[in-house]
């Protein structure tokens, strides 16, 4: 089947709608059941919307018509009014201002499209049509497809949320958090446990704690060729292979037996509105790291104020509802607090998660980072911790941090365990894509 993509619609989100239609078309009407030309017209009709019906000569029926109606309600033309009745002078949707009509629309798109596409359409509906207020109604929340972006929206509405809605909102947030934990926890534990074992190498290990691979490599210079066997043993043999041994002059092992925390981790997370997805992922990772007894984990969130949420790390949902998305940014103030809590610099990793749009004192911020690094702290700067691709960030501040030996880069949740492992072992960080780095 030939797949068609289009960028003829002027709205930037329309391409997503077009791609959505194409993927669903493939699933619901295989080309083998439709003549090629008719299928191509059908695709163009679904992509271009109702206004193209005359030019394509294609009339939609049945499920195709229902799918087109769901798309047109969000991306199609209308009477130029938003759900609140105010004119926009341009295209608008037909969802109406009541939660029941939106809930029905949400039910429709969940019927016709896969969950990943439903999440995109929900996000577009909230952004394009100003439907955030309707999320304060329980029946609306029960109809949505939970995802990280929805959690960010709910957190930003937390203070305005009535008591009748809060339990439903917590249930939605908990579902997303549990899904993230299932996906991320096992790999994070495995990766960091290995890194901690390697970082805790000792020179006089007990036999069970010897790292034989590293011990052999470290002692290859002590390889000795053994004397040839005596003549009686080799009688009648030719071409005997010489043998040798490595003398383990220096043993390398793991410090596995220690029950105290081997490393201190400080997650310093910007909770400005643009960092919503990063806040969600950082909270989940914070809870995972806090559950590892070999790590001492602290979670600090900030805008112009600084809040230490470490005592809530046993439940990432409580952590998330303890944040307050939006407001300004004072990175210097947040780093000053983190710096005051460091007691073992050589065994500490500080992870700053921020887009670096600093509202505080820039020079002081850079001085603090330089001082922490000089004391032995491993400092990591993440411009985002999400799957959203290249973020917007302050390039000047990112370049200044890079010059201090703290390169700033965006990180996906799947890469985060590897970044932390590299920081723990004090080796170069696995920066994912140089194209998006300052």
Quick structural gist:
By secondary structure, the chain is an alpha/beta fold.
Number of strands: 10
Please count the helical segments.
Answer: 17
Our Rg estimate from Cα atoms comes to 29 Å
Distance from first to last alpha carbon: 41 Å
Helix content: 40-55%
What are the low-pLDDT stretches, counting only 5+ consecutive residues below 50? Answer: 1-33, 78-93
Assembly form of the protein:
single chain
Query: What shape does the CA trace take?
Result: globular
Order of helices and strands: HHHHHHHHHEHEHEEEHEEHHEHEHEH
Query: Spatial order of the strands in the main sheet?
Result: 7-6-5-8-9-10
Strand content: 5-15%
The average pLDDT is: 76
Question: For the report, how would you describe the main beta sheet?
Answer: 6 strands, mixed
Derived from helix and strand composition plus strand pairing, the structural class reads alpha/beta
What is the element layout, followed by pairings?
Blueprint: H1 14-28, H2 36-48, H3 53-56, H4 62-75, H5 99-112, H6 115-129, H7 138-143, H8 148-156, H9 163-199, E1 201-202, H10 212-218, E2 223-225, H11 231-234, E3 244-246, E4 253-254, E5 263-270, H12 276-290, E6 295-302, E7 306-308, H13 316-321, H14 331-340, E8 348-353, H15 362-374, E9 378-385, H16 395-403, E10 408-411, H17 416-424
Parallel strand pairs: 5-6, 5-8, 8-9, 9-10
Antiparallel strand pairs: 1-4, 2-3, 6-7
Helix pairs in contact: 1-2, 4-5, 8-9, 8-12, 9-12, 9-17, 14-15
């Amino acid at each position: 089947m030939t797949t068609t993509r289009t960028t003829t619609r002027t709205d930037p989100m329309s391409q997503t709608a077009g791609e959505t239609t194409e993927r669903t078309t493939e699933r619901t009407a295989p080309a083998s059941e439709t003549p090629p030309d008719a299928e191509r017209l059908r695709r163009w009709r679904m992509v271009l919307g109702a206004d193209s019906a005359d030019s394509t000569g294609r009339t939609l029926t049945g499920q195709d018509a229902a799918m087109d109606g769901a798309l047109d309600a969000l991306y199609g033309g209308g009477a130029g009014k938003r759900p609140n009745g105010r004119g926009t002078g341009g295209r608008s949707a037909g969802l109406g201002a009541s939660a029941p009509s939106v809930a029905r629309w949400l039910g429709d798109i969940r019927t016709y499209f896969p969950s990943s596409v439903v999440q995109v359409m929900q996000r577009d509906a909230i952004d394009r049509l100003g439907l955030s207020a309707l999320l304060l109604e329980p029946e609306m929340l029960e109809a949505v497809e939970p995802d990280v972006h929805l959690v960010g929206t709910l957190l930003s509405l937390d203070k305005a949320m009535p008591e009748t809605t809060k339990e439903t909102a917590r249930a939605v947030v908990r579902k997303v958090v549990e899904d993230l934990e299932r996906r991320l926890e096992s790999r994070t534990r495995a990766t960091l446990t290995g890194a901690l074992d390697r970082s805790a190498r000792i020179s006089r290990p007990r036999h069970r704690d010897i790292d034989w691979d590293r011990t052999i490599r470290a002692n290859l210079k002590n390889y000795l060729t053994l004397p040839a066997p005596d003549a009686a043993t080799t009688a009648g043999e030719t071409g005997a292979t010489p043998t040798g041994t490595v003398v383990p002059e220096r043993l390398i092992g793991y410090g596995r037996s220690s029950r105290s925390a081997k490393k201190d981790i400080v997650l310093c997370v910007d909770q400005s509105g643009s960092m919503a997805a990063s806040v969600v992922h950082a909270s989940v990772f914070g809870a995972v790291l806090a559950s590892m007894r070999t790590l001492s984990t602290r979670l600090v969130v900030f805008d112009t104020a600084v809040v230490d949420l470490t005592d809530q790390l046993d439940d990432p949902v409580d952590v998330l509802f303890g944040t307050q998305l939006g407001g300004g940014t004072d990175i210097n103030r947040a780093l000053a607090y983190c710096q005051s809590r460091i007691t073992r610099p050589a065994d500490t990793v500080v992870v700053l998660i921020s887009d670096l749009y600093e509202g505080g004192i820039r020079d002081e911020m850079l001085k603090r980072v330089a001082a922490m690094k000089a004391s032995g702290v491993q400092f990591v700067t993440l411009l985002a911790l999400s799957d959203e691709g290249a973020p917007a960030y302050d390039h000047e501040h990112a370049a200044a941090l890079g010059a201090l030996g703290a390169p700033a880069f965006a990180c996906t949740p799947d890469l985060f365990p590897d970044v932390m492992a590299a920081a723990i072992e004090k080796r170069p960080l696995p920066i994912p894509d140089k194209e998006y780095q300052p």
